[in-house]
């Protein structure tokens, strides 16, 4: 059954009409109770009352409404309804009459919620399986690495395992988190960098400075960006810091508050200055010995920097290298998942 009731309100006489089905939706027998506006609002869920009241007030000013809200019946049962309403105005442009319909959509909404829960469970299970499969691949690489003693080859295995770990961590966060298709990237970066410092067993006097805003990213952006951070932090940990000093790696993740200032964020002559508007910036910097001027980071033999360039292009972002008292990689990007 459709469970649709209708109502009318003669504003001039303050007479109200409810159909029998509408009484039933609100948990009453026909004509059981006098219909008033206060009675109607008392049936609306307390958290929805202001929303419903504002919609009706706007309708009296000429804006029809089409809303969903919750009812609390006398027996405590909660129902979800869909209501549409409209105002008729007289020749003086004053509100003369209102009319509308109310449909009980409780079962429909509960079915939607149940299906959404099933889908969420299914997707989370997929993330869990992908994470486990990536960990198996990492374990296989570890076993394969035992066949070698050459430090360069062993380092290549380790770097590959860290790249796999950066992807596995994203799937783990999505499996554990409240959302199935986006993750809070700042929290992810905190865990990723902690894992990298642990992986390289840092005993040097290197501190980590994180300035991370709460930003949710989809999978298509988060995975490449995670690998990018993995490569840049790994590069700093391995190559940037001689012994005997205090060193620092800094990572910032920011939302560009005003898209009109995009060009001001980049230097006037930079590679990013003429690009399209971006939503976010990511900076990975260190105060180490820096990358020599003669090295072109966009055309290098370093697999890590090659990956960084490829992945920035994949997410349709923009990359700058700033050589100021160390190394600073500055990236502007959007969430291509949306």
TrEMBL record:
<dbReference type="InterPro" id="IPR036890">
    <property type="entry name" value="HATPase_C_sf"/>
</dbReference>
<keyword id="KW-0418">Kinase</keyword>
<dbReference type="Pfam" id="PF08447">
    <property type="entry name" value="PAS_3"/>
</dbReference>
<dbReference type="InterPro" id="IPR035965">
    <property type="entry name" value="PAS-like_dom_sf"/>
</dbReference>
<dbReference type="GO" id="GO:0016301">
    <property type="term" value="F:kinase activity"/>
</dbReference>
<keyword id="KW-0808">Transferase</keyword>
<dbReference type="InterPro" id="IPR005467">
    <property type="entry name" value="His_kinase_dom"/>
</dbReference>
<feature type="domain" description="Histidine kinase">
    <location>
        <begin position="125"/>
        <end position="337"/>
    </location>
</feature>
<dbReference type="InterPro" id="IPR001610">
    <property type="entry name" value="PAC"/>
</dbReference>
<feature type="domain" description="PAC">
    <location>
        <begin position="65"/>
        <end position="117"/>
    </location>
</feature>
<dbReference type="InterPro" id="IPR013655">
    <property type="entry name" value="PAS_fold_3"/>
</dbReference>
<dbReference type="InterPro" id="IPR000700">
    <property type="entry name" value="PAS-assoc_C"/>
</dbReference>
<dbReference type="InterPro" id="IPR003594">
    <property type="entry name" value="HATPase_dom"/>
</dbReference>
<protein>
    <submittedName>
        <fullName>Hypothetical sensory transduction histidine kinase</fullName>
    </submittedName>
</protein>
<dbReference type="InterPro" id="IPR011495">
    <property type="entry name" value="Sig_transdc_His_kin_sub2_dim/P"/>
</dbReference>
<dbReference type="Pfam" id="PF07568">
    <property type="entry name" value="HisKA_2"/>
</dbReference>
<dbReference type="Pfam" id="PF02518">
    <property type="entry name" value="HATPase_c"/>
</dbReference>
<feature type="domain" description="PAS">
    <location>
        <begin position="17"/>
        <end position="63"/>
    </location>
</feature>
<dbReference type="InterPro" id="IPR000014">
    <property type="entry name" value="PAS"/>
</dbReference>
């Amino acid at each position: 059954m459709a469970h649709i009731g209708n109502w009318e309100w003669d504003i001039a006489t303050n007479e109200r009409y409810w159909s029998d089905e509408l009484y039933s939706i609100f948990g009453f027998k026909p004509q059981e109770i006098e219909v008033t506006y206060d009675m109607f609002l008392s049936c609306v869920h307390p958290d929805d009352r202001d929303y419903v009241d504002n919609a009706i007030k706007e309708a009296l000013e000429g804006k029809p409404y089409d809303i969903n809200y919750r009812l609390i019946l006398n027996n405590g049962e909660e129902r979800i309804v869909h209501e549409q309403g409209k105002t008729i105005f007289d020749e003086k442009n004053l509100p003369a009459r209102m009319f509308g319909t109310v449909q009980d959509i409780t079962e429909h909404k509960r079915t939607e919620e149940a299906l959404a829960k099933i889908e969420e469970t299914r997707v989370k299970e997929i993330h869990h399986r992908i994470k486990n499969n990536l960990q198996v691949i990492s374990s296989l690489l570890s076993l394969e690495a035992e066949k070698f003693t050459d430090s360069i080859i062993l380092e290549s295995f380790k770097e590959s395992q860290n790249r796999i770990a950066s992807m596995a961590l994203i799937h783990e966060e999505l499996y554990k988190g409240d959302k199935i298709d986006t993750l809070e990237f700042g929290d992810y970066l905190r865990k990723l960098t902690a894992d990298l410092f642990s992986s390289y067993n840092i005993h040097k006097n290197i501190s980590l400075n994180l300035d991370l805003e709460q930003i949710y990213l989809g999978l298509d952006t988060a995975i490449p960006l995670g690998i990018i951070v993995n490569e840049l932090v790994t590069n700093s940990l391995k190559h940037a810091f001689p012994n005997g000093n205090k060193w620092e790696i800094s990572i910032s993740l920011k939302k560009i508050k005003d898209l009109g200032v995009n060009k001001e964020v980049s230097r006037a002559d930079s590679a990013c200055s003429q690009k399209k508007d971006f939503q976010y910036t990511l900076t990975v910097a260190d105060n180490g010995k820096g990358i020599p001027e003669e090295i072109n980071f966009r055309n290098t033999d370093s697999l890590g920097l090659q990956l960084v360039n490829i992945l920035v292009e994949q997410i349709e972002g923009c990359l700058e290298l700033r050589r100021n008292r160390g190394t600073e990689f500055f990236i502007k990007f959007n969430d291509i998942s949306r």
